[in-house]
Amino acid sequence: MQKNSKIYIAGHRGLVGSAIIRKLKAEGCNNLVMRTSKELDLRRQADVETFFEKEIPEYVFFSAAKVGGIQANIINPATFFYDNILMQSNVIHAAYKYKTKRLLFLSSSCSYPRLCPQPMKEEYLLDGKPEPTNESYAIAKIAGMKMIEAYKKQYNVSFFSIIFPNIYGPGDNFNPKSSHVIPALIRKIYEAKINEQRVVEVLGTGNARREFLFVDDVADACIYFMDKLKGGEIINAGDGKDISIKELAYLIKEIIGYGNDLRFNTDKLDGMPQKMLDVSHMNEYAWAPKIPLKNGLIATFDWFVGNYKDIAAKENDKN
Ligand SMILES: NC(=O)c1ccc[n+]([C@@H]2O[C@H](COP(=O)([O-])OP(=O)(O)OC[C@H]3O[C@@H](n4cnc5c(N)ncnc54)[C@H](OP(=O)(O)O)[C@@H]3O)[C@@H](O)[C@H]2O)c1
């Protein structure tokens, strides 16, 4: 990628897309193409093709998706399936048709089988059934990676996929109806603190283990790997360490300074028992994340507190 390369960032207002934009701009890239979902609904094939024909992007960071936490996945499986399959299929096909040089598809550790051996190696994909609570999202992500492999075989494109663990950071979605575990815990515990609540209920047993990557590290990986991966390649990128939800909740409680108790609600589902990526393939490329979990959580909490009024006001507007 050169500073004047034409680069399309799909989903540029999202958690990851906005971090990619910040980093590309900081590196002096000056030919960035962006569209909101209102300006270009990526589920509409004809509109996507018209956009590619007009813009002819040389590089595509595909960070648009229908994304959400466990409850959102349980309640909206059809939307997770339909939106993701359509968006990714339209963009990958248009990128092939209009000769995009390189395309990066962002995938997720949710794609691995529910009972996958840990740490999860890239070759374990499709070795078992996905976790039922996020089956639609997992199948869509697997389809995206497999579609890229197929386009590499048939058309020799330089498109590839990176599988990330749970991503978090400033700009995350803090809406309790759809948020992932870190923003959900930050909000619950912070509100319990300011409302002097005696106890905070955490969904699940707390025993499930997860790996987390700070969003600036994700953006760094996306840009680093864009010029390095081979067509069709699928690679895990994470820090190769996990933490139980219980440990995470207590760490967040400590950062927020909430003095009361946490109670784990064992009636709620835990999702996959463990999700930790094997990063040996990534290590061969000499890339590693830089932000330790505690520092990333502090930065995310600070952002949340600084934006708390705006977040609440936007939610009230939508109601
Ligand atoms: N968050 C995680 O924990 C995580 C973990 C692993 C992998 N990933 C992957 O990383 C990528 C980015 O995730 P994220 O967390 O940044 O998601 P996000 O914050 O929810 O952002 C997603 C973006 O997708 C865009 N989008 C949604 N529907 C669209 C449509 N119909 N047409 C056009 N654009 C649409 C939205 O655009 P508008 O804002 O314009 O509406 C939004 O900015 C996804 O591929 C996701 O699967 C995420």
Describe the structure.
The chain starts with 6 loop residues before the first strand and ends with a helix. It has a 6-stranded parallel β-sheet, with helices on both faces. With 319 residues, the chain is of the alpha/beta class. It contains 10 helices and 13 strands. The model has no long low-confidence stretch (mean pLDDT 95). Helix 2 (45-55) runs parallel beside helix 4 and helix 6 (181-194) packs across helix 10 (293-318). The chain has helices at residues 15-26, 45-55, 70-75, 77-97, 135-155, 181-194, 215-226, 245-256, 280-284, 293-318, and strands at 7-10, 32-33, 59-62, 102-108, 159-164, 166-168, 199-203, 209-210, 212-214, 234-236, 243-244, 261-265, 274-275. Bound molecules: NADP nicotinamide-adenine-dinucleotide phosphate (NAP).
Q: Key features?
A:
3-stranded mixed β-sheet, binds NADP nicotinamide-adenine-dinucleotide phosphate, alpha/beta, 319 residues, 15% strand, single chain, 6-stranded parallel β-sheet, globular, 10 helices
What is the string of SSEs from the N terminus onward? EHEHEHHEHEEHEEEHEEHEEHH
Biggest sheet record: 6 strands, parallel
Number of strands: 13
Bound molecules: NADP nicotinamide-adenine-dinucleotide phosphate
Portion in beta strands: 15-25%
Poorly predicted spans: none
> N-to-C terminal Cα separation, in Å?
43 Å
Question: What's the rounded overall pLDDT mean?
Answer: 95
Strand order of the largest sheet: 2-1-3-4-5-10
Structural class of the helix and strand makeup?
A: alpha/beta
Please give the share of residues in helix.
40-55%
**Cα-based radius of gyration, to the nearest Å:** 19 Å
Figure out the total of helices: 10
Tell me the overall shape. globular
